[in-house]
Each structure stands twice: as C-alpha cells, then as structure tokens.
C-alpha cells in the first residue's frame, strides 16, 4: 500500500511538473470557424477525505486533455459559449463566457473531479464525482483582443484552487487565430515593474506605498458611436470608486476610495433601440460598465445596470460587482440628465460609485451636443436655497421699511397735535 501511494504521489508530481512546462491548446469550433481558443497551463489544488485524514493533492491539466464537443459550444443558439476540457476518468475544466458587446469575460469557472480515480486520489473514502463553480473570476478583455497572462494566477473555485499560467485566450473570435492585439493581465505588468526601494548603510528595503486621500475626481468626457460612425451616447462626469476588498499588504478587508483618471481611460459601448451601454477601461486593471434602458411606452430612460471588474495590485483576488436592477439617473427621451451635485450610486454592499458634475444622454442624440437637461432633485434644491434666502431678506427689508414708515407717520402726527 505504501509503495502504491508513493507511486501515485510520484505520478501526480510528474503531471504537475509537465503542467507547468507545457501549455495545452484547446479550441471550440462551429463548422470551419473557431469561436474560442485557449493556450494555457492549469493546475488544481484539491482537498479530499481519506479513511483516516484529510489530504490535499496537486493535479495538473495534462497535454492529453481534449475539448468535450458535447458540452462545449459557441453559444449561437442564445446560450453562453462554453469551453470544456476533459481528461482522465471523469475530470473536466470548464469556462463559460459572456459579453456586453465591447468586452468579454469568463462568467463561470467550473472544475469537476472524480474521487474514484485512485491515481489522483489514493485512499479516498468516496467515489463521488464532485463539481465546484466560481463566478466572475476577473478574466476579461476587449472584443477582438487576446487575454494574456503568463504569470501564475490562482482562483478560488468552491473549496479548491485553480491556477492558470502561460495563458493566451480569446472568445467571440472573428477569425480562427488569436488576435495579435493583447490585453495583458495586471500580474504580468507588475512582474516587469520593480518596486521603489530605500537604501541605508546596512540594509535595502522596499518602501511601502504612501496612501494619498483623493480629492474630487477630474471630469472626463466620453462618447459612443454607432455602426455608421455618428455619436449615439454622450457622457461627462467625474467618477470615484468606494470599494471594500481584502488587501495583500494589510491582510484584512479595507475600504478604499479611488478616483477614475480620464486621461488613462478609454471608452467604448453600444447603442440599441431600447438599451445603450458605456464601458470605461482604465489600463486593463479597471473596467466599469453602465447600461441604460429606455421604456418606449413612457419615453423615459434610466441607468439600469452597473458592472465593475477590478484587479488592483494590492487585491488578493480580482474584484467584481454587478447589479442590473438599478433605477438611477432618470430622464426623458430627447433630453439629457444632469446632476452637478455629488451623488452616491449604491451597487452592492462592497461597492458604490460617487459621481460629480455629471451629464449624460444615452438616447436621442441628434448632434454632438447635449440636449436640454433635466436636472436632478439635489441641483434643484440647491437652486432653491438662494431664492428662499433672497426672498427672506427681501421680506425682512420690506418689514423694516414698513415699520420705519409707520413710525415716521406717528411721529409726524404727534408734532401736529402739539
């Protein structure tokens, strides 16, 4: 038994070494076209129960893995595209994708493993086939762009860990080859940038970052063009993230306030008859998506959805927040919505978005200029304050003037009596 267990461990270790050295190429095809292609190495850290204890093993995706044509699809029937790789007796790795028209992302990461496979799971006290799923793992890129991440990157999937490395991936492909335009992950960018250091006579240490509280964010101008090149969405606003995440440096959950920098941000999106989207991407580390919905019966529109993907250097894992049931920034078709006052748009308990000096028009844009604005209640209230104060002062002056005239008349009448 000890010999077989040692042999199993040796086999697993051998697979792990091969998995780190060799990348597997996987393709999902429909007819003669390729819609998903991935070149990657993957390893899985899986914990299972034996008859006497709990054991954790490292399993790698072998180069013999193949695409399961029955489960994989391009999603042309309206379902989500899926890439499912199978290996061994009942093991599988699955990635499903979603898109908002400008950006695609891994919507779900699925791992399936068969505990009856004694070569991977010796002495397991169960023969179950286990499936674990994780949503919004933070792998995304613009459409017609290859996502690239050479650095090992770990994702929590249920109670297990999946680590990808040497990854090049593209979904919703227009051709059969990966796009030469690449979206590089934050880990790869960080690995090429040396941290600042301070040197003393005895030691050299890495200087910790000094947090700087942000002021009001700079106002950015963004637009979206439709297929014929004309502007269909206009937006001007300053944006500020209020976000809670687990910090690597502090090893605890922190609340951070971060401004979006307009000159480092690109915009894209789409315009349809009853929906419009604006996607803001800052250095591939932050992607913020807005979805606007138009009610054709009432000719009223509103901000119905906000999605945030963030993968900042101090985050222990990529952050994502999504709410598609919002009812903010309400206005009328043919008019823009304007709010100069600071607003807080609550998306999830861990994320809210502060807006400053905002004006947006997602529908009915006829020129490159905003239409007449409908102002938010806060701006209207702020306009009423000076009017009320002015009216109060005018009333006070009038009261004083009347009192003065009455007093003068009485004084004059007294002199006549004398």
TrEMBL record:
The chain crosses the membrane at residues 383-406. One of its GO terms (biological process) is establishment of protein localization to organelle. It comes from the Eukaryota. Residues 25-157, 217-365 form the Lysosome-associated membrane glycoprotein 2-like luminal domain. It is a single-pass type I membrane protein. InterPro entries: Lamp2-like_luminal, Lamp2-like_TM, LAMP_CS, Lysosome-assoc_membr_glycop. It is found in: Cell membrane; Cytolytic granule membrane; Late endosome membrane; Lysosome membrane. Residues 192-207 have a biased composition (Low complexity). Keywords: Cell membrane, Disulfide bond, Endosome, Glycoprotein, Lysosome, Membrane, Signal, Transmembrane, Transmembrane helix. Residues 1-23 form the signal peptide. GO terms for cellular component: late endosome membrane; lysosomal membrane; plasma membrane. Residues 385-416 form the Lysosome-associated membrane glycoprotein 2-like transmembrane domain. Disulfide bonds join 35-74, 149-185, 339-376. Residues 190-222 are annotated as: Disordered. Belongs to the LAMP family. This is Lysosome-associated membrane glycoprotein 1. It comes from Seriola lalandi dorsalis.
């Amino acid at each position: 038994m000890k010999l077989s267990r040692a042999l199993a461990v040796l086999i697993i270790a051998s697979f792990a070494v091969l998995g780190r050295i060799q990348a597997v190429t996987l393709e999902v095809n429909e007819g003669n076209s390729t819609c998903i292609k991935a070149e990657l190495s993957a390893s899985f850290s899986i914990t299972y129960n034996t008859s006497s204890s709990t054991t954790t093993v490292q399993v790698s995706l072998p180069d013999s893995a193949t695409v399961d044509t029955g489960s994989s699809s391009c999603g042309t029937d309206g379902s989500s595209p899926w890439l499912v790789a199978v290996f061994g007796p009942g093991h599988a790795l699955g990635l499903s994708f979603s898109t908002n028209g400008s950006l695609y992302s891994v919507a779900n990461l699925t791992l399936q493993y068969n505990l009856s496979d004694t070569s991977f799971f010796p002495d397991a006290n169960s023969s179950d086939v286990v499936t674990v799923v994780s949503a919004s793992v933070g792998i995304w890129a613009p459409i017609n762009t290859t996502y690239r991440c050479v650095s090992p990157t770990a994702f929590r999937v249920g109670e297990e860990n999946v680590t990808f490395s040497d990854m090049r991936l593209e979904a919703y492909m227009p051709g059969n080859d990966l796009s030469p335009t690449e979206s590089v992950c934050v880990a790869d960018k960080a690995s090429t940038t040396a941290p600042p250091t301070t040197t003393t006579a005895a030691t050299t240490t890495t200087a910790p970052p000094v947090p700087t509280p942000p002021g009001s964010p700079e106002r950015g101008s963004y637009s979206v063009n439709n297929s014929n090149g004309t502007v269909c969405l206009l937006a001007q606003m300053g944006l500020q993230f209020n976000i809670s995440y687990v910090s690597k440096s502090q090893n605890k959950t922190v609340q951070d306030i971060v401004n979006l920098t307009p000159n480092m941000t690109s915009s894209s999106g789409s315009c349809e008859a009853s929906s419009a989207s604006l996607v803001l991407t800052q250095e591939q580390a932050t992607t913020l998506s807005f979805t606007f919905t138009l009610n054709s019966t009432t000719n009223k529109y509103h901000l119905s959805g906000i999605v945030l993907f963030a993968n900042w250097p101090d985050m222990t894992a990529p952050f994502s927040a999504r709410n598609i049931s919002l009812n903010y920034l309400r206005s009328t078709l043919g008019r823009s919505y304007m709010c100069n006052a600071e607003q807080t748009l609550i998306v999830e308990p861990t994320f809210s978005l502060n807006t400053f000096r905002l004006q947006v028009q997602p529908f009915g844009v006829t020129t490159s200029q905003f239409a007449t604005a409908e102002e938010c209640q806060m701006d209207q209230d702020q306009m009423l304050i000076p009017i009320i104060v002015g009216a109060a002062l005018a009333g006070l002056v009038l009261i004083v003037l009347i009192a003065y005239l009455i007093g003068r008349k009485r004084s004059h009448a007294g002199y006549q009596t004398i």
